Hints:
The complex is a heterodimer. By secondary structure, chain A is mainly α. Chain A is 67% helix and 0% strand. Chain A has seven helices and no strands. Chain A has helices at 2-7, 13-34, 40-58, 84-93, 98-108, 113-120, 124-146. In chain A, helix 6 crosses helix 7. Chain A is elongated and about 65 Å long. The relative contact order of chain A is 0.09. In chain B, 62% of the residues lie in helices and 0% in strands. Chain B starts with 14 loop residues before the first helix and ends with a helix. By secondary structure, chain B is an all-alpha fold. Chain B is built from 14 helices and no strands. The longest helix of chain B has 26 residues, at 257-282. Chain B has helices at residues 15-23, 28-39, 50-54, 58-64, 71-79, 82-94, 106-125, 131-140, 161-173, 176-187, 208-219, 230-249, 257-282, 287-312.
Amino acid sequence: MLLAFITNRCRSRHDAAELAQETWLRVWKSVSTQFDGTDFRAWLYRIARNLMVDHYRRKVPQPLAVLPEPEPPAEPDFVDAPSDTAVALAGCLEQLSGEHMTIVRARLKGEGYETISQRLGIPQNTAMTRFHRAKQQLQDCVSRKLS
Amino acid sequence: MNLYALEIPDDEAHLADWLERHLVGLHVTELVRQLEVVQGAAPADAPRTLADALADRLPRVLDEGLGTLPPAQLQSLLRQPQLLLELQEQVCMGGGSYWSGVTRSAEHLELASDGWRRLQTVLQTSGGKTDAITTAFESAAPKTVSPVTSSVTISAAHSQRRRRLWLVGLVSFAAAAVVLVAVTLSNRASHQPWGWEKPGVFAAQLSAPEYLNHVADTAQEWFRKRPDTKEGLLERLHQMRRGCDALQAAQHAQLVAADKDWLLERCQVWAKKFDDQIAALEAGQSVTDIRSAADETVNKLITALRERAKQSA
C-alpha cells in the first residue's frame, strides 16, 4: 500500500520508487529513536508524506530577483496537471454522439444497463452495445492523439 | 495509454472489486483524472468529503471492503472521484487486513520486488543488519503466497524492542509492497516464466474464441513438470498463482466485455483454489493429494475456458 500511496501522489514512477526506498530507509534508521511504539502505520505514512513534500519543494525553482518571496504552499500539489491521456480523452469525448455520451457518463457514474435502458427507452443489449462502441471509439481516438 | 475509467465492469456486482483493485493499485490517480474528465463538474449537492459520502459506513469499509456499501454509496464515489484518493489514504492509514487480500497487478508486484532488492542492497552496503529482516520475511513468505495473508509469525532475531516493533509493524501491516516482495524473492530463484507468467501471453492478436483457447493451452503448461517434493510443488503453485495475477492485470482486448468479466471473475475463483492448496500443503497435507487437487483445478479451468471459447464463437 505504501508504494500505491506514493506512486499515486508523485509525478513520475522514478520519483515514487526513490521516495518509497527513502521512506523505508528513514524508518530503519530512526525506529529505535523516534517511533513511540503506538501507531506504526501513521508514523510510516507521515514519514512518506514529509519526504514527498520536501522532495517537491526542493524542485521549485528559486526566484532570481531580490523580491519578497511569496509564502510557499503548505503542501505542494503532488499531482496537479491532468495527464496526457486525460487531456486526449477530453478532446475525444466531444466527438461522441449525444446518446453515446449520455450512456458513457451514466456508466461511469456506476449506473447499470437496466437503469440506463429504462431511462433512454432502449433495450438493455442496445445500451450495452452502444457503450462498448463508444468505448472503442474513444480508445481509438485517444490512441491516435497520443501516438 | 490505459483508459482505466472505461474498464468499469459491465456487471454492477463487480464494481466494488474493481474499485478495490484500483484503491490498492498504482493508477487510482489516473482513474480519478479520467472520471473527472468524463463527468465534468460535480453537482452542487454532491458529497464533498468521504465522511459525507459514506457517513457511518467508513469503518466497515476499512475493515471489510467496498462490498459492504449499498449501490448508491458506491456510485457516490464515482460521482465525486476525488473521494477515491481520500479513501485510498484512509485505507493506507487505517485499512484492515482485508485490503491485503485485494489482488495487486503484476506490474505492482514487480515494482515492489525491485524496490526491495534495492533496499536490501542499500542496507547491506551501509552496514545495516538485514539478516533479521530477511529471516522475518522469509518465515512469513510461505504463508503469504498472494496478497491474502494468513497469520504471520515473526522470528524475533533482534533483542531490541524497537527493532522488533518495526518488524511487527511491517509484517502485521502486511504491506503488499513488502510482504509480497519477500514471497517473490524467496520463490523466484531464477526460474523461466511459464504459463500465464510468460511475457506477451495475453497480448496475442487472436479472435475471442482463439484467445480463450490460447489461454487454456497456456494453462496446460502446468502439466509439464510434476514436482514430487513439497518445495517443488509449492514453487510450482506459487508460479501458477502469479500467473493468475498476471491474467487479472491483463487488458484482454481480444474479448468482449462480458467474456472479459467472466474471465476475471473465474480467475479469482481459481486463484482462491490455488491459495487454499498452498495453505493445505504448508499445513502438512501430502504432496500427492495437493498435486491431484491442483491438477483437478487446472483441468477444470482449461475446460471452462474451452467451453467459453465455443460459446463466444
